[in-house]
Design goal:
The protein is α/β, with parallel strands linked by helices and about 350 residues long. It is about 25% helix and about 25% strand. Helix 4 crosses helix 5 and helix 4 packs across helix 10. Bound molecules: 1,4-dihydronicotinamide adenine dinucleotide (NAI), manganese (II) ion and zinc ion (ZN). The site of manganese (II) ion (MN) has 6 residues, from helix 4.
């Protein structure tokens, strides 16, 4: 088989590898589609602190089970599956309270262990979720990015009467917008980005109002109509956004963060406590695959609105370049396997 391997930062090769044999408790997936994520590009460039090299990247993938390891029902062969990249120990404190995504021994497929940009990938059988026929092969790998939105919104507990403000209309912001509108029925969703094309995508995904904050601050624009968001999600993840979000949030607002910057954000206790603001962070997902598959099946979320490009996996370098350099034309890029 062939695999896309980052041998060391900056060096991507398509490597011939032996067909892997599933270990006990694992299934082997014959990959047919995989989505490119910002973190794949970061591992390529050496900007992901968790990655070890060489690494087969890719954590958003779909395919068919073609072999099972010891202890896994042979009847699973043939299943159409998407793979939850979160591999956890099952017995540490976070695992014991249903939060395997922050397991003390967390292994993310495609980051800490080899991933799905490969003709075949072996994964724990419990991580492979069956996809119903109503979800197409071409879009099934989009389940994973929506699980990130499912996870953060579960903390925020949105209500229809909320006014939500989302920073960033990349894949993460767009999935959050769709979940707020399509699942929770939030009446007013406001989205800020610096790129008009991204704001147009936000509108397509259900945003009620968009703000280009390239030349004007969101705070100034909201002040005109005295709008106080009751939910803020930072899906742009610049360290300066937290301070602004706290400043313009309503009393009793909830703020969701998903960034990994190592730079400090400047916030005061007073600005948070005086309004009794709740701050939530969210990483990957905790068992959200079944929920997202159900939402997709019911048409509550629309992955096709994010997927802009499908390319052969052999063109992975061009695909990653496009994904990284052309946010105006490009949102989600999906690779078609085999290599
Ligand atoms: P992206 O780069 O495609 O999208 C970010 C968007 O934010 C862009 O459209 C950009 O124009 C916009 N933006 C940048 N600065 C802004 C500002 N100051 N105000 C308003 N908009 C601004 O990235 P993607 O894939 O949507 O991911 C977003 C962030 O989420 C990344 O930082 C990524 O590391 C993080 N992330 C976190 C996860 C988690 O589980 N916590 C999972 C996946 C991504
Ligand atoms: Mn991803
Ligand atoms: Zn654990």
């Amino acid at each position: 088989m062939k695999s896309i391997v980052i041998q060391q930062p900056g060096k991507l090769v398509i490597e011939q590898r032996a067909l892997p044999v599933p270990a006990a408790g694992e299934v082997r997936v014959r990959v047919s589609y995989a989505g490119i994520c910002g973190s794949d590009v970061h591992i390529y460039h050496g900007h992901n602190p968790f990655a070890k090299y060489p690494r087969v990247i890719g954590h958003e993938f779909f395919g068919h089970i073609d072999s099972v390891g010891e202890g896994v029902e042979a009847s699973r062969i043939g299943e159409r599956v998407v793979v939850d990249p979160v591999v956890s120990c099952g017995h540490c404190y976070p695992c014991s309270i249903g939060r395997p995504n922050v397991c003390t021994e967390l292994q993310v497929i495609g980051v800490h262990r080899d991933g799905g940009f490969s003709d075949y990938a072996c994964v724990p059988a419990v991580n492979a979720y069956v996809v119903p026929p109503t979800i197409s092969d071409e879009l099934a790998s989009m389940v994973e990015p929506f699980t990130i939105a499912a996870n953060i919104t579960a903390f925020l507990k949105p209500q229809p009467q909320d006014t939500a403000l989302i920073y960033g209309a990349g894949p993460m912001g767009l999935t959050v917008i769709q979940v707020l509108k399509g699942v929770y029925g939030v009446q007013k969703v406001i989205v800020a980005d610096r790129i008009d094309e991204r704001l147009a995508m936000a509108k397509q995904s259900g945003a009620d109002w968009t703000i280009n904050n390239q030349h004007q601050s969101v705070a100034d624009i909201l002040a005109v109509d005295d709008i106080r968001p009751t939910i803020v999600v930072d899906a742009a993840c610049h360290p300066a956004i937290l301070q602004e979000a706290i400043l313009l949030a309503s009393p009793a607002a909830r703020i969701g963060m998903m960034g990994f910057s190592g730079e400090a954000s400047s916030v005061t206790q007073q600005s948070i406590t005086s309004k009794e603001i709740s701050l939530f962070s969210s990483r990957l997902n905790s068992h959200r695959f079944p929920q997202v598959i159900e939402w997709m099946k019911q048409g509550k979320i629309a992955p096709e609105k994010l997927a802009t490009h499908w390319m052969p996996a052999t063109e992975v370098e061009a695909a990653m370049h496009l994904f990284e350099k052309d946010p105006r034309a490009c949102c989600k890029v999906l690779l078609k396997f085999p290599l």
